[in-house]
Write a structure and sequence with these properties.
There is one protein chain. The protein has 22 helices and 8 strands. The protein has 496 residues and is an alpha/beta fold. It folds into 3 domains: 235 residues, D-Maltodextrin-Binding Protein, domain 2 (3-Layer(aba) Sandwich), CATH 3.40.190.10; 180 residues, Periplasmic binding protein-like II (D-Maltodextrin-Binding Protein, domain 2, 3-Layer(aba) Sandwich), CATH 3.40.190; 54 residues, no CATH class. Strands 1, 2, 3, 4, 5, 6, 7 and 8 form an 8-stranded mixed sheet that branches. Helix 12 crosses helix 13, helix 12 packs across helix 21 and helix 21 packs antiparallel against helix 22. The radius of gyration is 24 Å and the shape is globular. Keywords: Periplasm, Sugar transport, Transport.
Length: 496
């Protein structure tokens, strides 16, 4: 990969090489670190920070409960290292909305600042942060720390949260919050005998009732359910999706229509977009996404995460395609007994029907410019974060861990109402991430503009919108050297 010449040797690995070579005694922890809490040594272990006070700062996503969970649990880490290693640590938390967080992180890291020692990054930012030499390449730290050598639940976890460049062995992130799209359902409406009878009379079919029923459900079949529960006269609609131009909202909810029906967005090896994204089949998928607006509340073209939470909590929608990570907000005391969370439907018909939805979630990344003490604390924290006791506690507080040991516990599926659907969608082939390219933010901005221009009626044709996006992205990637070919001549005459 390309290295930042200002970052020095080791792709921005500012921590001294001699420290890395000390292995578990320096960057890592002793083999006893992974032992259960009950087996802790009574006396503090020898540690280079013993007797010191360290202040750490985490940058995370404003209003995003999984991010705040990591900081709310930090006092447990402080108690742990005080007892075991004899040093004091405190954590501050800075935040910004999804749409602003990358810029806030980049502005600070570009100055080689230690303002944020650990960052909760969106997965797609790995390329931009790593290529610039701003975040720590973690391979040596993982090799030196057995507690970081986890068996992850699926390859999807590694591909989404850890590796850059795609397909390489270079690791720059560790999963903080796993996330997949799930379908939140009002089970009180679904299980109402009167509703079941009315649905059967109208469609000569049964309303799906169980997790397994929704596992088998296609979008065509679910469309009847959404239509059935769309009752504008009663201010109730069948479903809600994210269609907003803000950040990646429309993108993440269009991709399932595209991927599940055999489409793709680019060739990651060559950087080719034109001719791959803007196909007739993908245009039809975008048309399908727009057609679902008739089952959604007025103003749905502006819906993002928060808007979906609002209409679901207010009882204005029967269902929501929503992130599993938002379960803590979607399900509250008022509706807890009325909600079930299931897999989102497959696309297509019969044996050919598939479900491939967009991955969400965020990795931890470590500031490459941390001094030696803060770097040590950051690695200590990661070792603690992936202890079995910590990951289970995180799940009990509403977080979504990604390691196979925690997700395979018999009780995991019932800890939270969304856990089973989250784990189901984390299985290989059911969810995928998109670009980790350093030009992610530029490509996303163009794409959000194009997709939502069609969804809101500003651009009449789905194909025109995709042509525009493909041409613009091809130029971005060609200019950056990722794409081997420049946009074709037709691109000069395409606009929204």
């Amino acid at each position: 990969m390309t290295r930042n010449p200002q970052a020095g040797p080791g792709a921005g690995l500012v921590i001294p090489r001699r420290t890395l070579l000390k292995g578990a005694a320096a960057l890592g922890l002793s083999s006893a670190f992974g032992a259960p809490f009950i087996n802790r040594l009574k006396a503090a272990e020898a540690h280079p920070l013993a007797g010191k006070k360290i202040e750490m700062n985490v940058l995370g996503i404003a209003g995003w409960l999984p991010s705040s969970l990591g900081v709310k649990m930090s006092p447990l880490f402080a108690d742990y290292v005080k007892e075991r290693y004899g040093y004091d640590v405190s954590f501050g938390f800075a935040e910004a909305p999804f749409a602003d967080l990358f810029q806030k992180a980049a502005t600070s890291l570009a100055t080689k600042s230690q303002e944020y020692n650990i960052i909760i990054s969106d997965s797609q930012w790995l390329g931009a942060l790593a290529k610039a030499g701003w975040i720590l390449k973690l391979n040596d730290a993982i090799a030196a720390n057995k507690n970081l050598q986890l068996d992850w639940y699926s390859q999807t976890v590694i591909d989404t949260y850890m590796v850059y460049p795609d397909g390489s062995k270079d690791i720059y992130g560790l999963p903080q919050e796993g996330d997949t799209i799930a379908l939140y359902i009002r089970k009180d409406m679904l299980h109402d005998p009167a509703e079941q009878q009315a649905f059967a009379a109208k469609y000569n079919a049964k309303l799906p009732q169980t997790f397994e029923d929704f596992d088998a459900l296609t979008m065509d079949e679910f469309e009847k359910v959404a239509e059935f529960f769309t009752r504008p006269d009663k201010q109730v609609w069948g479903t809600a999706m994210q269609n907003s131009r803000v950040y990646d909202f429309a993108t993440c909810f269009y991709y399932p229509f595209l991927w599940s029906q055999g489409g793709d967005i680019w060739d990651a090896k060559t950087g080719q977009v034109e001719g791959i994204l803007n196909t007739d089949a993908n245009a039809k998928a975008l048309e399908q996404m727009k057609s679902w607006l008739k089952y959604q509340p007025p103003g749905a073209t502006n819906f993002g995460i928060a808007e979906e939470i609002d209409v679901f909590q207010q009882g204005k929608v029967f269902s929501c395609f929503q992130w599993a990570a938002v379960g803590l907000a979607m399900i509250n005391d008022a509706n807890r007994d009325k909600v079930m969370v299931v897999p989102p439907p497959k696309h297509g018909k019969g044996a050919d029907a598939k479900r491939i939805y967009t991955m969400g979630g965020q990795p931890w990344v470590i500031n490459a410019f941390n001094d030696e003490a803060k770097m040590r604390v950051a690695i200590d924290f990661m070792n603690w974060w992936y202890l079995p006791e910590t990951t289970l506690e995180y799940a009990k507080r509403g977080g979504n861990p990604c390691d196979k040991a925690t997700l395979s516990k018999p009780e995991f599926d019932t800890i939270n109402p969304w856990n089973r659907a989250y784990k189901f969608m984390l299985e290989p082939g059911r969810s995928r991430d998109f670009w980790h390219d350093p030009k992610y933010s530029e490509m996303l901005a163009v794409q959000q503009e194009g997709f939502t221009s069609y969804l809101t009626g500003q651009t009449a044709s789905a194909k025109q919108a995709l042509d525009y996006v493909a041409c613009q992205q091809q130029q971005i990637l060609y200019d950056s050297g990722t794409a081997k070919t420049e946009p074709t001549g037709v691109c000069g005459s395409i606009s929204l």
